[in-house]
Amino acid sequence: MSAVAADNVLDLPIGDASRAGREVAVTLDGVLDTRAGELVTPAEFAKRLANTRVLFIGEEHTNPEFHDVEFAAVKALHDAGREVLIGLEMYPYDQQAPLDQWIDGKLTEKGFVDLSGWYVYWSHHWGYYRDIFNYARENGLRMYGVNMPRADVNLVREKGFDALDPEARSHLPPKIDVTSAEHRRLFRSYFTADDALHSQMSEAQLDSLYRAQVTWDATMGWNAAQALEKHGGKNAIIVIFIGAGHVAYNLGGVRQLTANYSGEVRSLIPVAVRGADGKPVGPVRASYADFIWGVPGRDGPGLPVLGVSLAGRIGKEPSKVIQVDKDGSAAQAGIKVGDVIVRLDDVAIRSTTDLQSATGEYAWGDDAALEIRRDGKPMKVDLVFRRPTPK
Q: What is the pTM of this model?
């Protein structure tokens, strides 16, 4: 989940009671220790994590500045002499072999992206993470998939935790807490009134979605801690890259893990100093994360996307457009709902995964030939990957 919502999830009076009543200012390129109320350097940040075993970093998946912070945090810890392991939301725990092969230098970049199923398991541009993955390989930092396979998450969502078989259940902590009123409040705060999907959900549907959220929270922290205990040394720390909604106020992954793990667990979330409207971000609650790292903020995705949603597995034509982003590249090229995307340059598009993978080869400003069918008739469209015009 993103850390932006109408209910201002950055300033809710929830989380750690000693900080929940206090607000803090975000400083651009500053690292704020919210427990001490002090700005620190990246090197001092690493020192303050000397006893920490698990660090959750909450990201916005399509914001390059958030990934810059992830890189900087990992580098600061590595430079401080820590053994750093990295836990990844984007891979389930049963996809470990390609990650090991990547770190061991056995795969090219393209080979890794294809073999690991990057665009199968993760819908976001590889370019956001390239520098981190290269740094990990160059420095021998082991990486671990910590997410749960989608089928198991869906099973919990539909039938509850008891529906999992013993093998799947072993990747969750012994105790899972679904009783936190504050966490449910946070969960609801991400859904705005004009959210066409979630605003129409019944209470039963929202409860099932909440079970899925808790499943992600619990399994990713637990699998990361297990990887640390199995593969890390005495001085090791595992840094988990995970959506900010799973980290905020230490109510998601942090809370589920600390109830089942004796090691010290901390959180870091970057926060943009300006919103999409260009206005300064208001106060942030001190309980939002243990460390808050100020970043510039941007409007729209940082790397190219076409700006469409496809029918995927729910339709007879998986590449049929069911939604067009208002100011995206596709809209600017005249793509409409109902069009069927056949080919992007020389790449046949048969699924959302095909489209995401093909789009990952382009930069902003690149042009491409898009072949579509409209009302059954073939058409060719000249496309340029352009950022939305700032408002």
A: 0.88
| Greatest Cα-to-Cα distance within the chain, rounded to the nearest angstrom | 64
Compute the distance between CA of residue 231 and CA of residue 215 in angstroms, rounded to an integer. Answer: 24
Give 389's DSSP letter: P
Which residues are 310's β-sheet partners? 321
Domain boundaries, the chain: 9-295, 308-384
Residues 383 and 330: their CA atoms lie apart, in Å, by 7
State the helix-helix crossing angle for 96-103 and 130-139, rounded to 10 degrees.
60
Residue 360, both tokens: 């990952």
Which CATH superfamily hosts domain 308-384?
PDZ domain (2.30.42.10)
Give kind and range of the element (H or E) at residue 86: strand 83-92
Angle between helices 181-189 and 203-231 (to 10 degrees): 110
Rounded Cα distance, 13 and 161, in Å: 30
Tens of pLDDT, residue by residue over 291-329, are: 999 999 876 788 888 989 898 776 678 889 999 988 889
User: Does the structural domain 9-295 have CATH classification 3.30.1300.10?
Assistant: no
